[in-house]
C-alpha cells in the first residue's frame, strides 16, 4: 500500500471531481486517484460528506503513514469544506501559503487549503479563481523562466487566462466557454438538431469552421448559425457540436488576446482533447504555439504550495532525511 | 358574438403562443384572443392538435360568419401545420402572398399561411425568420415612408434586425438574446445567486450597468461578472437578472449596429417591458430613438398579407360593399 517514502498527500478538489496525489519527498507523484466526489457531488451534503470523501480517497494512505495533506480548488470556497478568503492580485504564488487555512479532520489529519485569487483592481469588475492559482504555481515550478512573464491559458468549464509579470499574477480573466457550450447543447434550440451522444472522434474541420466564423464577431448572432447551418443541411448534425465548440473557443481566444497582453510567452495548461482544441485555436487565430508542452501542473503546484507552507522540505537532500 | 362586418380572421401562431384577431373589412381589429397553444404546446401533437387549437380559438367566429383565415409564424415551419418554403431575400413583403400555402381544415375553412424569409446570400451563413416578415409588412402598412428604408429591430426570444431598402428586406440577422438569457438564468451558475422569481419592478440602474459593461466586449468573459458582482456583494441578488439582461441586450445592439447599416430610420417593433428595455439600450448605446412609436404590427401585417392574397378587398370602399 503505502511506500515508506510518502511525504505528502495532495488533493485537487473541484466542483465536479476530486483527484488525490501521493507524493514523494522530491515531489514525485507515486500514485494518483480520482473520483467524482467534487464538492457538489459528495456522498452526503456538508461536513460529513467532506469527511467521507476524504477518507475514501486517501484514508488508507494516511493510515499507513500520517503525512501532511494539502488541498486546492472549490474545497476552499464558501460551499467548500472550509472557506479560505481570496488573496488579491497582483499576487505571487509563494504568498498562497501565508493565506492558507488548516483544518483538522475527525481522524486527526491536518489539511491545509490554498486560497483562491481575486482580481479586483479599480475600474474593473472583480474576477475570481480557485484551483488555477495552484496550476500557475506548478507552471512556475516547471518552467520558471518562461512562466514568470507568460500569458497562461487554462481551458475548462470556466477558462482562465492569467497574465504574469515578474512571477506575479497581475491580471486574469474568466471565460464561461465550457459552461455555455454545455447549457446551449443541453437546454437551447441549438441542441435540438445535434445527436444525443458526442461523436467518438471530434471533427476538426467543423471546429475550424467555427473558429473562422468567430472572427466575424457578434457571438449571439453567430450562435444562431449553428441552427441555420443544420436546418439548411450545410452542416450534418454530427458536426454541429464541433462547430459550436469552435465558435465559443474561437471567440474566447480572440477576446482574451485583445483584453490581455499577449506579447509574451504563451503557456497552455491541461491535457487531453480540450487542450488540443485550444492549441488549434491559438494557432489558427493568433498564429501562436504554446512555448512549452501542455500538461497537468496541479501536482507540482500543490507540492510547491506545501513547501511554501513548511509542510515538506524544500530540498531533496533534507527531505530524504 | 360575431358582428356582421367580420371580414378576416388572422392568426399569429408562434412556438409558444397563439393570437387570433377578428378583423373588419378596413383592417380594424374587432376582437383579440390569445392562448398558450403555440406549435410546441398543442393540446395533442400533430394534425389533431392544430385542428383542436384552431377550433378553440376561432371556431365560433367562423361558425357565425365564414370568412378567410390567414396565419403567420412557426405554424408554417417543418414542425408546423403545413410547411411553407422560405422566400429568399432580397424580398418585398408583397411577394409573401404568391409564396403562401393554403390548407383546408376538417371544418372546411381555408387557412392561408405566409412563408418565412431566408437570407442566404453568397459568403454569409443562412439566416431565417418566420412571423417577423408579417411584422415588417405591418410596419410598411403603418409607416410606408419611414419603413421602406428603415433598420427594424424586433426583440424576442430570437431577436431579428432587418435592413430595408426601397421597401424590400435586403438583409437581416438573428440574435439569440432572449433564449440565452433564459437558459443561463435557469441552467447555469449565473442563476444560482438570483432570486427564483423575477422582480415585480425591473431595475433600470442594474440594466444600465449591464449596458455599459457590454461596451467592453468579450461577452463570455463579461457574463462571468454576473457571478462575481453577486459573490462580492457589489450587486444584490435581485439586480442580477436585470444586469444580465443589460449585458446581452447591450451586446446585441452594439453588434447589430456594427454589422448592419444603421444610418437610416430606426424602427422598434413590439410592446411591453422588453420593448421599453430595447428603447433604453438604443438610446444609451447608439444615441438613437425609434423614429416611430413601437407597437404590435402583426394584425396590420396579416391584413396586408390577406389583401395581397386577394382574400379581402384592398380599399375601404369596396370592402364595405
Automatic annotation (TrEMBL), chains A, B:
InterPro entries: DGOK, DGOK_C, DGOK_N
GO BP term, example: D-galactonate catabolic process
Top-level taxon: Bacteria
One GO molecular-function entry: 2-dehydro-3-deoxygalactonokinase activity
Endpoints of the signal sequence: none
Membrane-traversing stretches: none
Name by which UniProt lists this protein: 2-dehydro-3-deoxygalactonokinase
Lineage: Bacteria, Pseudomonadati, Pseudomonadota, Alphaproteobacteria, Rhodobacterales
Amino acid at each position: 500500500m503505502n511506500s515508506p517514502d510518502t511525504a505528502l498527500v495532495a488533493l485537487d478538489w473541484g466542483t465536479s471531481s476530486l483527484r488525490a496525489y501521493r507524493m514523494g519527498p522530491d515531489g514525485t507523484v507515486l500514485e494518483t486517484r480520482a473520483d467524482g466526489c467534487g464538492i457538489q457531488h459528495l456522498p452526503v451534503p456538508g461536513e460529513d460528506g467532506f469527511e467521507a470523501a476524504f477518507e475514501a480517497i486517501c484514508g488508507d494512505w494516511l493510515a499507513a503513514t500520517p503525512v501532511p495533506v494539502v488541498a486546492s480548488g472549490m474545497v476552499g470556497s464558501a460551499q467548500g469544506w472550509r472557506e479560505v478568503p481570496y488573496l488579491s492580485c497582483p499576487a505571487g504564488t509563494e504568498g498562497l501559503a501565508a493565506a492558507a487555512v488548516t483544518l483538522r479532520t475527525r481522524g486527526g489529519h491536518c489539511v491545509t487549503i490554498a486560497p483562491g485569487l481575486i482580481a479586483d483592481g479599480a475600474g474593473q469588475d472583480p474576477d475570481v479563481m480557485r484551483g488555477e492559482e495552484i496550476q500557475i504555481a506548478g507552471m512556475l515550478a516547471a518552467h520558471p523562466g518562461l512562466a514568470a512573464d507568460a500569458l497562461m491559458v487554462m481551458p475548462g468549464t470556466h477558462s482562465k487566462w492569467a497574465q504574469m509579470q515578474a512571477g506575479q499574477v497581475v491580471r486574469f480573466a474568466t471565460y464561461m466557454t465550457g459552461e455555455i457550450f454545455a447549457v446551449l447543447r443541453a437546454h437551447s434550440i441549438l441542441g435540438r438538431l445535434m445527436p444525443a451522444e458526442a461523436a467518438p472522434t471530434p471533427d476538426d474541420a467543423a471546429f475550424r469552421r467555427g473558429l473562422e466564423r468567430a472572427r466575424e464577431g457578434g457571438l449571439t448572432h453567430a450562435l444562431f448559425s449553428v441552427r441555420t447551418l443544420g436546418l439548411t443541411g450545410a452542416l450534418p448534425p454530427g458536426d454541429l457540436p464541433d462547430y459550436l465548440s469552435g465558435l465559443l473557443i474561437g471567440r474566447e481566444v480572440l477576446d482574451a488576446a485583445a483584453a490581455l497582453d499577449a506579447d509574451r510567452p504563451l503557456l497552455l495548461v491541461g491535457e487531453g482533447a480540450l487542450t488540443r482544441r485550444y492549441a488549434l485555436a491559438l494557432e489558427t487565430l493568433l498564429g501562436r504555439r504554446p512555448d512549452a508542452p501542455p500538461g497537468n501542473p496541479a501536482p507540482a503546484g500543490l507540492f510547491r504550495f506545501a513547501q511554501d507552507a513548511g509542510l515538506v522540505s524544500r530540498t531533496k537532500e533534507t527531505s530524504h532525511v
